[in-house]
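Figure 2 data, in text form.
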Amino acid sequence: MSKSVLNVAIIGCGGIANAKQMPSLVKLDTVELVAFCDLIEERAQQAAGDFGIGAAQVYTDYQELLKDASIDVVHVCTPNKSHAEISIASMKAGKHVMCEKPMAKTAEEAREMVETAKETGRKLSIGYNNRFRTDSMYMKDVCESGELGEIYFAKAHAVRRRAVPTWGVFLNEDEQGGGPLIDIGTHALDLTLWMMDNYEVKSVMGNVHYKLADQESQANAFGPWDAKEFNVEDSAFGMITMKNGATILLESSWALNTLDEDEAKTTLSGTLGGADMRDGLRINGEKHGKLHTIKPELGAGGVAFFDGETESDSDKEASLWIESILNDEEPVVQPEQALVVSEILEAIYQSAKTGKAIYFD
């Protein structure tokens, strides 16, 4: 791409845009935030004032925003229900798209997004920012080096003890498509598949639980939930069998009664060694006839660390995404990979409803 600075628009100026997307984008000298859209005009105006250039435009209708031919990139930060609709329209309008996770509410919509990216030649990526953590990138290097051998068993961890999100539309099945499985389980599953570099699924079995919605919980981290609004699952679990025989166990919950909490983590077991993120990053295996476990020292020893400057996972995600457009390279999170995540999540929900395994072929 011949441009050195990209004009970026934000559609959906709520929590994820303010906490993650806009603060990271505004740090880049290759980006100008030129347009902001939200159904609540005051939120778009606030975002424009906080992050936009002086002439930034404000919209309440994303279709009007897409008419601006000067916009190069759109970041979609809306509820899951509108991810596909807005992303597809944006690509058809000639924009590259970063869509927040999960890719879409349904697998069918996610497939339409992939097809639109191919048809239009626009770049599409999904906001799986946990790939860009220091421990994640180190673990990925370990996997790619072959140190673990063939990874044939893994666990994807997304478990909270009492942290049901009580703001926005998180508890609304129509808007979101589900609860913790599609909200935080999606991150853990993406990390696991990416580490294994295995996207060939044979079958999926799952169970989904609606056990806690009608209970009052004053101890919830985000305040008591309203039982009348809580119409998604509180926990979901899946077993994924890959075509090469590998097995993945996925656990996800917003409010499980357990002390074994972990979120956006993965555990890997291979023929030569294993790795996990349960107590910091740990690599295990056998050397010189003895079992060994190492905990790499991540982040220490560099100039940025010495200067007290660190790059967050969201900053790195934004930087590499924009570079992929400017350099015409594949984004780190490829849409075909994110599609498989959506297909597995949907299969877990389907398996729970039918009581049967869902086969992909």
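Caption note: Residues 300-309 have pLDDT under 50 and may be disordered.
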